[in-house]
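Design review, sub-item: ligand-bound model
Attendees: FS, YL, KQ
YL presented the inputs for the calcium ion complex:
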Amino acid sequence: MPIPVIMDCDPGHDDAIALVLAYACPEIEILAVTTSAGNQTIDKTTLNARKVLSFLGCGAPVARGASKPLFRELIIAPQVHGESGLDGPALPEPTSPESPMSAVELAAKTIRECDRGVTIVATAALTNVAALLLAHPELKSKIERISLMGGSAVGGNWTPAAEFNILVDPEAAQIVFNAGIPVTMCGLDVTHQALVTRADTERFRVIGGRCSTMVAELLDFFVKFHEANFDFGGSPLHDPCAVAWLVDPGIFVSRKAHVDVECRGRHTTGATVVDFGGVSGGAMNVDVVTGLDLGRFIDLLDSALRRLDRGMA
Ligand code: BDR
Ligand code: CA
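KQ shared the predicted structure:
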């Protein structure tokens, strides 16, 4: 049986590739997609999610999430993802309409109606997921796991202490980490090792189909940004890690921890405080992902693209 998932995302180049990977993998069934503001405004991320799903031919409903974090003003990242939020490939207009429901309504309905526990893959600020948990605490027991991209045990990418998704809505993240639900945290500890290079981009491009070409065009933009601004020797494919962990956890290394989120720090707002030793006494409900086998991760993406291209010729 595939894992039933709700994808909560802010596409976003790496979110788009996470959607592609989830759709391509038989281990996963996308029941619904909800959008978050973050990489761009909610209008843009919602349009982008609909474009990606239409391109893939995925019929999952797409519902719009909150336009801003729970208590703060929105931070967006046009320098990383461009003015559209998904600069690079020319994706056609979506063929199916946006859901009339809100993200919280669609997620609640999806979880309630599913005959199995649902996994939430969250690759953006956690505003929608926190709002869902606050509005529908009765559904917590039907959420199998939250596999998220966000945070880090060591250091940040938007401030010295904070990773972008957690910084955008730290109060939401604190609610999610402390909801008593098993969480997989694919933070910068692992995603800064999930590096895709120009050579990988060419490897995907030569597959030569519609989907591999689209992903190569996304990576052209994404890799150029990271080459110009960082010295990683590649571009971190953050969000696909949260999907790949579900598909093949054997690719990754993780450690149990309790995680709190700093919401009031002078220099540390948005930092994830990762307690590996259990000294806080909090529930050790988070699998903090700390490493991966990069070759197997890239191979997983490659075979996903080949599978999609065969079906999309
Ligand atoms: C995260 O921030 C966003 O820009 C990416 O899509 C990813 O989810 C990385 O910090
Ligand atoms: Ca994202």
